[in-house]
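job 3f2a | input accepted
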Amino acid sequence: MILADGQDVRHLVPEHDPRVRLIHLDGWPEIGAKRNFGCEHAEGEIIAHWDDDDYSAPGRLADQVERLRESGKAVTGFHSMRFTDGVHWWKYEGTRNYALGTRYVTGGTGGAHIAFRSFRWVRTTSSSPRPTPQASL
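job 3f2a | predicted structure (137 res):
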């Protein structure tokens, strides 16, 4: 599932692939609300987060899925990652006990690069509004 809240990205998504769902959301929901919406509507065994403005290596998802399956753990993330602005590269170096972007797991900064088993996601009661899908494309 791809949740889009900005410009039209239909041209980037395979048209006749039943494994891919594109949902365009009205407005610009906060990232937490958007991720909650995605988790609530996920149909697969594993949920992975990534931001459209972050670089992910081609094997990133396959690596995380393999680590989840082999370890039996509920969540996987990276403690070190390379970032780019399209011209320059830099590397974030964390510690082995800190998965980059796992605020709700370890006090990190957002969950942008984690993958986890969908049955582990528990919807919490929140007063923040849920995003409204414009259309399922």
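job 3f2a | Confidence is low (pLDDT under 50) at residues 102-110, 124-129, 133-137.
job 3f2a | closed
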